[in-house]
Each structure stands twice: as C-alpha cells, then as structure tokens.
Amino acid sequence: MVKYLCSVTRDEEPSTYSGVSGGGLICLTIDSGLYDIALYLIQRFPNLATEKNEDGYCALEMMAQHPSAFPSGTKLTSWHCLIYSFLDVKRVIKEKLMHKQASALVKCMCTQISLMSSTEILRKFRDSSILQNATRFGIVELVVESVQTFPDLLSLELNNNHTILEEAIIYRQEKIFNLICGIIGNVKKFACLSDESNNTILHLAAKLAHSNRLHSVSSAPLQMQRELQWFKEVENITFQRHRQKKNNDGMTGRDLFTEQHKELMEKAEKCMKDTANTCMVVATLITTIVFAAALKVPGGTVSDTDSNGNGTPIFLSYNSFMVFAVADAFALFFSITSVLMFFSILTSRYAEDDFLYSLPNKMIIGLSTLFLSIATTIVAFGGALSIVLGRRWTWVPVFITLVACVPVILFSYLQFQLLIEVVHSTYGPSIFRRHSQRMQWSC
Known about the structure:
mainly alpha
C-alpha cells in the first residue's frame, strides 16, 4: 500500500519529499523496516538521504539504530549460516533479502551524501550519532561503506570525542576493530592519543565491557578470558613507553583493568571452583569403581595359582574379557588424570593472566579426560555383562549396554558444549585479524 501511494504521488508536490516532512517520511519508512520502499524513495528523490525529521535524525542515522537489518548484526548459529550462505530456504530468504536491501540503501545514501562538500560531510558525521551507533551495535556494513566513501572519518572525533577505533574498543566490536586496524596499517600512532581524562586506548580496553557484550560469552571464566584477550590485543598495538602512561586518576592501563574486573574475577574464580569441585567428585567415584572392578574381575579366578602365586581369571581367553580389561584400565587412567586436573584448578593462584591460558587448559584436559573415563567405564561395563550373561542371553548385554550409554549422552549434552566453548575460545580462530586490509564480512 505504501509503495503504491508513493508511486501515484506526483513529483510536482515537493513538500511531500523535502524538509522535515520528507525526513519524517524516510525515517518512518526505515523505522518500519520497509527498506525496499526507502531505497525506492531515495533513488527517486535523492535529497531524502540528507533530510532530517522533527527529532533531528537523518536516514543514515536511523539505519545505524537497526543492527538486525544487516548480516553483521544478526546472530546466527553455524547451521543457520550454512543455510544462509548456500540454500534458498523460505525461512531465511526473507531475512537475506532484507539484508541486501538494507546494504543497498546504505550505499545509496552514502553516494548521495558524498555529493556534499568535505566540510559538510565531516560536520554531518561529527554532529550525529551515525558512526557511534553503528560501531556500538557492530554494523560493519555501514561503517565499511562510510569509511570507503569518506576516508577522513577514520581520524574524526565523534560527538562523544572518540574516534571509530576508540568506540570499537569501548563496545568490544572486534570486526570493526579489525577493519580499522587493517585500513590504517600503522595503528600505533593512535595509541598515544588521549581524551579529556588522559585515558589512552589501553585505558579504554581496561574498562569493563558493556553488559550486552560481556554476556555474549556464556560463563564468567570465558568472559574474563575474552576481556584479557581484548586488553592484550590493544596492548600489542601500544608503544612500550605508553603502556605505563597514567590517567588523571593516576592509574595505568593494567591498574585500571585490575580495578574494573575485580568483581568479574571473583565470579570467574567461584564458577571455576564450583565446576572443578563437581567434576572432581564424579571423577573420584569413577576411579573408585574401576579400581575395584580391576581387583575383582568378572567370573573370578581359578583356584590354582601360577608360580607367582596369582590366580588366573576364568574368562581370560574370552575376547570380551580383553575388552573389559583394556577399557577398565583406560577408565582408571583417564579418571585419575581428571582428578589431578580438577585438583590443580582448585589449588591455582587465580591471577588475572591465569584465565587466559593456564586455567582454560586445565579445564579442557579435566573435562576431556572425565568424558573419556565415563565412556570407557561404560565399555568396561558392557564387556563384563557380555562375559557373565553372553552365553545364556545374547541379547541382554547388548540391550543393557545401549541403556548404559544414556549417561554418556547426557553428560555430552550437559557438559560437552562447555568443553567446546572453552576449546574454541582458547585455541579457535582469533577474533582479531588485523593483517587483512580488505575484509569480506559474513555470518
């Protein structure tokens, strides 16, 4: 209906598409998610790209407040990303079309704004919250288009006296951080700059992230790790002489990091200890069970003894006995290793830098060996049942073994996701890729 009304409105009525009336129309169209109509209007009436509504907002500023309209602002799972990239499924095709329309709309608006003088362009971006909101919400497409069209925006101080790079650090937007660092190249020249409180970019990285970005990571230890990764990355692009620079409160970047993350440190330590305590109890129980099973083998031993005085297992020649023995031994080794790892976590010093690699490594080894100990214990249980019941009821051991797999599956469902997250956060692809100057963004 809106598109039809726009098509039948005569060009001779300029008041409809100019001034506050035109700005209100284009802003309301964008705010309603009608990006195809907004694109049609700006292509037909280019002046709408710079008109403001009664609240002083322009079209590009409204786009900066709608991160879900762009691929970078839409959080998709790996499966959804696969569908989004390769398959035309009805459930995602509408969203993909919206993303294309929004990107085309931003490009069209930037093209129209580029016709203004350099002074007017810089004033427009400095006096508005376009880049500030785009950076805050992580709308990479809008920042890329703006910077490619107006390269001077890289060093422009926005209305909050911060550059795009500083805003990316404050709001923990790694994609925009990578983009700016890739374009600038020698980004260290920005490290010596400071604001009115004498804070450098290292001080900005030392401050606690905003809650919406902090909680994008599932648990407190991983949140602490992510904060450390950000601080270390910004520290790497800071000259050595500026790392000890103090702000107006007399604090260096490291001092500010310690103060700002004190509460998060306590939560991370408590979470890590609670997880280690719980898992260590399970690992200890498995150790006790499999050790007792090794001393009292299924079927017992023959009364005759060998030259060393040891009894010979009755079912020693059975293949299922070998499965039982090997699985029981591995279960014992894995469970003991798990106990040692979780005990090491409980007795750690819990320094800040420990959350970067030391503690995650111990948690990875502990959870992995615990999972393997549970799995091999089930295998040993199945081998023992096959020895005892296999000759009479061949189907019973198979059925009971399948049922016994439920704990393994349940553990995988409850804890394996945590293991995957820790491994990916510690050893997965880094969120920082400053070497690339031209980056292609996808989900």
